[in-house]
């Protein structure tokens, strides 16, 4: 399969809708969970073939990069975040690429999917995004390790929703996966989902700490059964974050969940995705594994702090024929 439909790509980038139908969840089905397997060598072989055979050129490339922008959760998760830095990030979220480039691309209203911050930065982000329709996502539940007492993790979600976060990125307890406590993981995720209320919930699996791809497959299923609206690879703070093999496993779990329940759960690779060409690779994988319906911000996001800068650079090159210095795009 090759990517050739520029119009489809540009059309989807203009779609404003970032929130779709929710995943109601289902009872924990242990037979299904324990039947999940992952053949590491086959998955790694398949992932290894992807970079070599993707070739998306010129206008098609620009269309796919625009699509990628519409799916970015523009993120800042640093200890020295300030209201000023978040306001600058939000300005970038509203207008992710220079206005003249957006005009040439025919996408004057292109924005990112969401802005993702720590709890303390929700209020400045909500203020800076007022009227834009761009939701604020907050990382929560003792991010990134998820080791604070359960009642505090629940309270943190509730506080963040109260502060205006429309999306909550929770972290799961890795030890529940590593010890095979699937019921415990299910109960925890269900409690997180309930605390979110109307806010959409993304379950961060921290796949780099789950040991095996089989654990990634099982944890993906359990979180979806417990009502996760999205499953997300990583916090960006593990030593191994989003990878193509892990993405294959998680996307196939999403596909299977959709086949069995009819419910579409979203996918968010996060951590270390900083190049436009990698973003296009991920989009092509989503297209192949899940289909076009997932190539929209209500079902796909990149968690990324520096990807937008490279995409803007590549788009500038596409339109003007020249690259600008990377420092010109420093805020993203
Ligand atoms: O969820 C988003 C990640 O924390 C961003 O990671 P990154 O800084 O490697 O892009």
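^ Assign residues to that structure.
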């Amino acid at each position: 399969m090759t990517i050739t439909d520029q119009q489809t790509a540009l059309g989807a980038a203009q779609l404003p809708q970032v929130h779709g139908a929710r995943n109601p969840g289902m009872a924990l089905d242990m037979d299904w969970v324990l039947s999940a397997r992952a053949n590491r060598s086959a998955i790694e072989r398949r992932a290894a073939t992807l970079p070599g055979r993707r070739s998306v050129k010129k206008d098609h490339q620009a269309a796919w990069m625009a699509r990628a922008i519409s799916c970015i959760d523009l993120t800042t998760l640093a200890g020295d975040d300030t209201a000023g830095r978040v306001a600058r990030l939000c300005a970038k979220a509203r207008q992710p690429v220079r206005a003249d480039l957006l005009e040439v691309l025919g996408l004057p209203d292109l924005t990112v999917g969401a802005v993702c911050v720590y709890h303390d930065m929700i209020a400045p982000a909500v203020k800076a995004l007022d009227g834009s329709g761009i939701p604020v996502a907050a990382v929560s539940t003792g991010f990134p390790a998820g080791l604070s007492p359960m009642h505090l993790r629940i309270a943190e979600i509730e506080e963040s929703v109260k502060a205006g976060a429309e999306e909550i990125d929770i972290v799961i307890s890795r030890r529940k996966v590593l010890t095979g406590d699937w019921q415990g993981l299910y109960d925890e995720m269900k409690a997180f989902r309930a605390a979110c209320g109307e806010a959409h919930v993304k379950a961060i699996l921290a796949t780099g700490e789950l040991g095996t791809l089989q654990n990634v497959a099982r944890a993906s299923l359990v979180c979806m059964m417990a009502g996760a609206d999205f499953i997300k690879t990583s916090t960006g703070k593990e030593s191994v974050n989003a990878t193509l093999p892990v993405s294959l496993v998680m996307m196939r779990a999403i596909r299977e969940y959709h086949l069995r329940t009819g419910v579409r759960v979203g996918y968010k690779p996060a951590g270390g995705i900083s190049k436009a060409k990698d973003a296009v690779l991920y989009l092509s994988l989503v297209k192949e594994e899940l289909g076009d319906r997932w190539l929209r911000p209500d079902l796909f996001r990149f968690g990324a702090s520096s990807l937008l800068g490279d995409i803007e650079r590549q788009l500038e090159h596409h339109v003007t024929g020249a690259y600008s210095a990377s420092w010109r795009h420093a805020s993203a």
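The beta strands are 72-75, 114-117, 136-139, 167-171, 200-204, 230-232, 266-268, 302-304.
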